[in-house]
Input
Amino acid sequence: MVCFGFFHSLTARPGIRAAILDRWPVSKLVYAVIRSSISLSMLVLSLVILFQDAPGTPGFFQPILGLPAIIPTMFAIWVAGMALGQVAKSRRLPQVFGVKDDPKVFFFSAAYSICRHPMYAGWLLASWGMFLSKPYLLTLVYNALISVYVVYESLQEEKQMISLFGEKYRQYQKRVPFILPYGFLKKP
Output
């Protein structure tokens, strides 16, 4: 997980991306596909290790199985899916995945009205929900690392959004929660 976080964060930086694209003349699309493939491979490997080795570490409670164990993940998929669907519907997937730089946009309705980072929220909900069925020390450490990474990346994105959109984004920050998707509880 640490290798994923380091690799994914480092290769997302514009300076690093530009240096790599200057050295190896590939398109931004090819770069994004290669970067995503490597990142996804690291995540899958970390999950394989987690599922193999977690039961060998101390447990905190009896694992919860069945429907109660998958409800957080189902909610996470719904939140992240809403956000991804909203981005896809607006034809902004190339900007979100770093294939295209312009135009710069931010979303503030639908999934983005319940939290500012719904895809990260989905990831956190799914990983902490997994703790119900794998309540072991290794799962706790894994989730702590994911949480630190997600908060760090979200804060980096917030800085970028403020530099791009200024006061408009600051007003959005005041109205909508950071990562936890409880914005639907607030009055519009």
